[in-house]
Design goal:
six-stranded parallel β-sheet, 11 helices, 34% helix
Amino acid sequence: MKRKVAKFTSIALILAMTISTLAGCSSSTPAEAPKADTPDTSTSAAPDAADTADKSGGAAAVDAEGAFHDTAELVIDYEKAVDPKGADIVDGSFQATPEEKGALATQMVGTQNQFEGMNIGFSQHRIAGSEWYEQLVDFAQAEADYLGINLTIYDANDDMNQQIADVETLINLGMESIIVNPYNSTNVGLDSIIAADIPLTVVNQAVDFSGPFTFVSADVQDSGYKTGFELARYYDEKNGWKDEVKAFVLSSAPQEKESDLRRWGQVMGWTDYMLDKYGKNNLNIVAYQYYQWLPEPAMNATLDVLQANPDIDIIFAACDGGAQGVEAALEQIDRLGDILVCTIDGRKSVLQWIKDGDKGMVCDAFNDPRQMGKWAVYMAALQASGVSTPSTFYVMNDLVTTENVDNYLDPNSTY
């Protein structure tokens, strides 16, 4: 699967880490350039879009391969797509059909070639170094291919000013709809999109913005609550009441609403369980660190915190990338299984740890980039065609535990 993305530089994020499973929210390998003899099957904006982008100050657009070296090749069977043939549009408004609500992440939604020739732009704040973002973008492209949409994607490489410029470029290119995964919950030119009368879809990253848009994500505060509650239940079942349970909160990034919501949910989930059962709370948060969604910083933070607080009982990890860093740290100091961990994302490598049962990984709530990628494109296309879409559209965020992991673990999954 190829796509049109802005140039980005490779980043060696986890060279020091020796555990092969550290390919979580943020992999150490960037997307590779396609071979010259590989046929280009991707959709893109009009032929002069890249040139126009260069002249208007945006990043140059180039083709890039869609799969990481350690990720299964992305193959979409479009014959298994959910095809409502307009059944999800009622009185000019989108209403998901039961089939769409229950669709697997790898099933495309909508009708094939439903929006043939439509031009949609996608400003992604970062792709390089993150397998999660890679999956988000790949499935956005897959859905665009299915619907017949020309999708132009720009990667700002975690540069806020670049993303603002990329958004301006997409506006100048005359996109019929624009998708944005914003940097650091920031208004990266979103008001300019609204001012240009272009429909806006925000995906994944919650943002404080008062303009009209559709937000496609998982309910991450609810996901956090589920994992925190399950961690408390599991701990209580294993240990009974303890007057003090020492916790390390591993939060992803400062000034990010997405990060805040996950953390709040996890702490509330634990607290509610204890209040409901015992009428009091025993949680003592002895350390709090950020890790920027990346395994290596999470590993280093965990090692530092455990050196100062060796008697920590539990760790709240905001995403699977953080959880992978935690597991690497615990393995280094021979503490795997001693400290209980909960996380959010639903990556198969972490689900495998839950199944194995020897690493202290208690639960994980889905935050599937594949679902978000395809639904963001579909919502953006519906808006451009004049269909009213909901202000918030949440994808599945099922909780995976030691008891139901076999229902969710798919060894052949690309995610």
